[in-house]
Amino acid sequence: MAQPARPAHGLTVLLGQQQRPEINGVEGGSHHGHEGAEDADGAGQRGHGRADAERGRRGAFRGTARPAGRAPPCGRRGAARARGRCGRAVSPARAARDDAPQSRRPALKRLARQRELARPGTVPVAQRRGGRAGAAAEPPREWAGAALRGDPSRAAARRLLYGAARSRQGAARHGQGSVSSGPAPAHLRRRSGALPCPALPCPAVPGRRPLLQEAGSAASLSPGRPRSPCRAGHRRSGSSSMRPPAEPRRPAPLLLVLLTNFVLSFGKETLQTTAVTPQFQKNVDYVDFIYLNILEKKVLNNSEVSVQYLCSKPCIVSLEAVASSEFRTGVPVYRRRWKDEKNLYVSRTRQVHLKFPSNMVYRDDYIIRNSIIVHSVILYAWISHRSASNYGDEQSEDYQAAVAKNYTFLEAVPPFERPYKDHKVCLQWGADYLWMLQANRIPQCPHETDGVHVLEFIYASSGEKTGIVKKFEQFENRELETVRQHQVDYPMFTISIWLYLLHHCEKDLCGILYFIDSKEMYGTPAVFLNEEGYVHIQMHLMRGDDLAVKTSFSLPLKQWFRLDLSFKGGQIEVSSVGKNLKRHHHQSFTFREDFYYDDTAGYFVLGGSGYVNGIEAFFGPVKYYRLNVLETEQISNPLHDKDTVEQIELYYERCMDIQEIVYDYRYIVRQGEKTHRSCYYENYYLELIHKYGEKSKCDAFMWGKELREKYHTLFKLLQEMDFSSPDEDGSDTVVEVGRRIFEKVVKGLSSANGLSNLGSSVPLLVDSSCCGYHKASYFLAVMFETGLGVPVDRIKGLLYSLVGAQGNERLSVMNLGYKHYQGINNYPLDLELSYAYYSNIAIKTSLDQHNIKGEQAFVETIRLMDDELLKAQTKENGDVFMWLKHEATRGNAAAQQRLAQMLFWGQQGVAKNPEAAIEWYAKGAIETEDPVLIYDYAIVLFKGQGVKKNIKLALELMKKAAAKGLPQAVNGLGWYYHNFKRDYKKAAKHWLIAEELGNPDASYNLGVLYLDGIYPGVPGRNQTVAARYFYKAAQGGHIEGTLRCSLYYITGNMEDFPRDPEKAVIWAKHIAEKNGYLGHVIRKALNAYLELSWHEALLHYILAAETGIEVSQSNLAHICEERPDLARKYLATDCVWRYYNFSVSQVNAPSFAYLKMGDFYYYGYQNQSRDLELSMRMYAQAALEGDSQGFFNLALVMEEGNSIPSYILDHLEIDQALHSSNTSLLQELYYRCWNNSNQETISPCSLALLYFYMRVLWNNVLHSTLIYFMGTFLLSILVAFAVQSFQSLSGNDSEDAARAVQQDEPTLSSDLSQQESNPQSPLVTS
Predict the structure, then answer these.
(1) In 3-state terms, what secondary structure has residue 1043?
(2) CB of 836 within 8 A of CB of 622?
(3) Which residues share a beta bridge with 606?
(4) Which of 375, 856, 1132, 1188 measures 20 to 30 Å from 466, CA to CA?
(5) What is the torsion angle, in degrees rounded to the nearest 10, for the CA atoms of residue 992, residue 994, residue 996 and residue 998?
(6) Which of 111, 116, 146, 141 is nearest to 128 (CA)?
(7) Would you state the pLDDT for residue 683?
(8) What DSSP string runs through 301-312?
(9) Nearest to residue 1011, comparing CAs of 999, 1028, 994, 1033?
(10) Is the peptide bond before 1150 cis (omega within 30 degrees of 0)?
(11) What are phi and psi of 78, to 5 degrees?
(12) Pick from 771, 768, 699, 763: which is nearest to 733 by CA?
């Protein structure tokens, strides 16, 4: 049994190695095609290897406790070692305890293995359990009855039953045929002359009264306790099963000839039925026979059965049908009797119409509420020599005492294939109306099969503690679900896995496929790979123990093969199949007890998990048959993507050559240096040449011309490299060569016009990738997928993505996770596969944050459109940094804190420098008494990051910061008491205080205490309370808490966390995108952009954007808009369209990206057609992000006469009452636009809203009824005023004219008088 988990040993700073559960193994039997059986009683041992629920939790200072696991597994190096180390004798007390019935075995499922026998053509239990030796005889049915019943001797009888079957099977394999297992005990022997019980589905003995029915009527099948097989009948004589019809005596030769020629043979002759052809004995007194003939052998009402019989004495002919359903077995459902006293020695034929219960033959309707799924129906017929006076008596032993008997099987009809019943009853009008409403509805059985594709796309397993999590639900099809439930204690399933194995397991065991139950323990099956390459299989038995076996053949390396495993009862068949589908190896195992298996009570894991590392391999298609055992030829699981499969094989063949060349070249150069070095000490001049001259290189190659031409770039590069460094491990040297090749390529690409050299760099990048430096693999994947300097090649892009992910390159793993999350670039949408990749990087992100080494930088969200953030970027010689340094020197605590953070994490454009950061932490902690600086310096001293550990000083500083009320410091004190003092009471006390102050680290640490069962005063573990604390920590941004919650969502094993793969992926992606190595690439791209190095900026932004991080995608699209000539020259894809599309598909997409895509759809971007509805959706999404431009654009679309779909308005939460009025909608949109804009200044939204109100006012006045009256009145006034004005103007003109005439007359007279008086006047002269 699984051992209880020990208390945790405290929180650790890093994610420690999770304790692997103990898994035992033994060697198996034959291989290379020989089909042998291995008895797990002799070769196996009890496994203690069930996974503990929360094994291996990591803790950081903000971390988790790591509970201790169980001892390492044993028995992986052979059966002898397994027995010597793990085997142990079983005491009598233990044996008695093991023999007792186990509560885990469901009482209602004990007859699961007998259910199959109800179908025609099935093989008896003993033969099924005995392997492929078909000659094995069936053991006495008393033993089977005792083994399957719930009596105390069940387990012992089961061992007798299985042991007898195996002994006969072994005898049959050695050519001895079927042998007897010895005389049965006295209380189990049959009476003299009784035949063995036939392999029937243990029906009730015909002749017994049907339940709740009288003779001649049918009984309804109702749920109830399953009846033990073969329990009815002659209990006094020791028989617990029904015997087959007795063989009649042979007739005279003449009668035999006549019957052979003229009498038809009825019934079906199988292994399980009595021969229906009469075999008469020589005694002519016994010639009774009875045959059955049914035209359609199905369970139908009024089915016609032709009964042909012959009686030698007055007889009673009986017909009885016995059914088995999902709840009960052996229920009589039909009976018919008649007597025949006169027609003796004459063959008679009688037509009988069978009648069954309605719920067996009709579909559900308003009256028949629940149809019963019938597994089998057996129709019995027999003849009894009885007197007529006994005709009506109940005779329970008629069938056993019959002089002739026969039976046949009837095929059950599925419920949805049955007809409706014409009840011929008058229903009330309400019931009749309700029935008519659903009468025409045709229910259909869900199209479902037991064959499930667990994996259809290639998965790159890097050997880490992450893998694909699959959970299976119950079947929707009732019949399939019933079969599944019946097979819980006698499982029958098959698993087929394609693999390309790179290495055997480096340490202990590596996971291939295993089942974790609801209690987070290993279940059935658990398939692992060990260090020698053997397959280790562990099973959970019905009794509750775990047993493990190990194959005698190892799995091949670097070639595709298929691993097929089939499980049946207590038997395992293991086969390895090549690409040509020819079987290479085969082995079988037989356990002493059946397996327990419920595939819905937990989840499957493909690869690694928190309990065990995965294998280093590529997984191909994985097929799972949930209810069937199939042979190798019957399994349908082909390799679909053959191009990628072949490319993987070719890649590793090439890489083997390259690695061998590098290793040999290094070895030759090193040997030459050793030879020369011995001379340097004798000649000072040679020593100076060696020290300051050219480095050694190998000009005379031992490789052939063909190989040198094939890898000419590699040889040229090797000659330029320096191998004079101290001796290193050969594999590390190969990786180092790959790193040097990669750095040389990147240096050329980062120069001005560096992207023009991309095409010529491909061979060097391939060589670097083959040397194991998988940053080059990711470069190649991005180049071939986007067409960066090379033609687009999807197959090569996928190849190098998989290779990089298998090599644990972080960006490559994130690339695959993102593609499967979105289902883009011909990658299938697979959330479980996406989670496997993202969770791998999320775990590494937590580890990388505690590692101050490596090319890491803080991931910052800096957009190229944000000028203020761009101006704040600086370097060590920048103005911002110099000003902060000046203020920090003067004692400014805020400047010291910010400067230390920038240097420690590499923020704001400053290179990462932990040593300089620690100096500022120490200076601030001592001089300024700032609690944050004191806390940060204490953490550094506790962990020894960049400085020598000093626990005493760290504790003093932590207490000092906590006294100042800093929540982080209070949490730090709890961590100290937990980690160093093992004082859980004080730790919990400080964590509770910090949790009340809102510290997420404290919430997480409290969850760890509950999870490990060490919370003071609370006995045992409480995963529910722990999960609540983890969720609270995740909401506060805690990395480990978020990871824990994502695991709960993907497994669905926690009550408060229903299975939600999409949410699990989103949470894991959120953590993975904080990885420091990704931040380093983004920082290099931003620095290149600020320095106007366009080629380098474009290259690094593409590398970051393909990982799925949104800020890089929108920044890359912005660069392509700024420099369209650069994008068109080096990218084969439309950069702007592609990456703005990627951006808007993210959860955290910015509003300007939605506006851009909305404009593209509105106007029709280049080759893209115009889509007005998609445009409005993008504008609406921008509006929901709080962008006023989105509301403004929607209003303009409406102004042009277009209508907005209702679902978009509902998404904007606009009242339904406003949908029908365009004016009301425009008013609402303009108002929201104004409300989301800057209300203190005049914005386009405020002007648009003002203009809208003016138009509404004018339209209201223009269309008013008052306007006509007012217009007429004003017009009349205007006309009158005009007439009056005209008249007044006319009168004034006449008066002025008269007045002018009167004034002119005296003037003229005076002028004339003057002329007369002065004749010399010029006027007169002229």
Answers:
(1) helix
(2) no
(3) 468, 513
(4) 856
(5) -140
(6) 116
(7) 57
(8) TTEEEEEEEE-S
(9) 1028
(10) no
(11) 125, 165
(12) 771
pLDDT value of position 1243 = 78
The values of phi and psi at residue 90, to 5°, are -100, 120
Amino acid at site 415? P
HSE, CB side, 13 Å, CA atoms: give it for residue 457. Answer: 19
DSSP SS3 for 69? coil
Q: Report the relative pairing of strands 492-501 and 583-590 from DSSP bridges.
A: unpaired
Query: Of 44, 69, 39, which is closest to residue 54 (Cα–Cα)?
Result: 69
**How far is residue 1080's CA from residue 857's CA, in Å, rounded to a whole number?**
5
Question: What's the 3-state SS for 1065-1121?
Answer: HHHHHHHHCCCHHHHHHHHHHHHHHHCCCHHHHHHHHHHHHCCCCHHHHHHHHHHHH
Distance separating alpha carbons of residues 29 and 6, to the nearest angstrom: 37
The amino acid occupying position 1052 is: G
Classified as helix, coil or strand, 1317 is helix
Amino acid at 1289: L
**Are residues 943 and 949 in contact, defined by beta-carbon separation less than 8 angstroms?**
yes
- Which ranges of 931-1038 does DSSP label H, i.e. alpha helix? 931-943, 951-963, 967-979, 984-996, 1000-1012, 1023-1035
Pull the structure tokens for residue 1271: 């217009």
What amino acid is encoded at 1131 in this protein?
L
First to last CA, the chain: 152
- Token digits of residue 12: 């650790």
407 Cβ contact partners less than 8 Å away, ≥ 6 residues apart: 245, 267, 273, 274, 292, 378, 379, 380, 381
Cβ(605)–Cβ(454) under 8 Å? no
Going by C-beta distance under 8 Å and a sequence separation of 6 or more, which residues neighbour residue 1300?
none
Q: Which residues pair with 350 in a beta bridge?
A: 307
Question: Which tokens go with 445?
Answer: 């059985």
3-state secondary structure of 121: coil
Residue ranges for the chain with pLDDT beneath 50: 1-283, 388, 395-396, 727-731, 1297-1298, 1300-1326
- Per-residue model confidence (pLDDT) at position 461: 95
Question: 10 Å Cβ neighbour count for 34?
Answer: 11
Residues 1209-1242, buried b or exposed e (16+ Cβ, 10 A)? beebebeeebbeeeeebbbbbbebbbebbeeeee
Q: How far is CA 262 from CA 255, 259, 265, in A?
A: 11, 5, 10
CB 937 within 8 A of CB 893: no
**What are the φ/ψ torsions at residue 741 (nearest 5 degrees)?**
-60, -45
What gap in Å lies between CA 509 and CA 868, rounded to an integer? 54
Task: In whole angstroms, give the CA distance from residue 761 to residue 790.
Answer: 10
On whether the CB atoms of residues 443 and 416 are closer than 8 A, the answer is: yes
Helix then strand count (H, E) for the chain reads 46, 24
DSSP per-residue letters across 515-560: EEETTS-EEEEEEEE-TTSEEEEEEEBTTS-EEEEEEEEEPPSSSE
Buried-exposed string 102-112: b where 16+ CB fall within 10 A, e elsewhere: eeebeeebbbb
Q: Using an 8 Å Cβ cutoff, are 912 and 857 in contact?
A: yes
Matching residue, tokens 């495993």: 565
Q: Is the pTM of this model over 0.90?
A: no
Task: Sort strands 510-517 and 613-614 into parallel, antiparallel or unpaired.
Answer: parallel
Any long-range contacts for 559-562 (C-beta under 8 Å, 24+ apart)? 559/500, 559/649, 560/498, 560/499, 560/500, 560/620, 560/639, 560/645, 560/649, 561/498, 561/499, 561/501, 562/496, 562/497, 562/498, 562/499, 562/620, 562/637
How far apart, in whole angstroms, are the C-alpha atoms of residue 1295 and residue 32? 140
For residue 469 the two structure tokens come to: 């999590």
List all residues 6 or more positions away from 692 whose beta carbon is below 8 Å from its beta carbon.
none
Q: How far does Cα 872 stand from its chain's mean position?
A: 43
CA separation for the pair 832, 1051 (Å, rounded): 10
Residues in the chain, how many? Answer: 1326
- The amino acid that residue 258 corresponds to is L
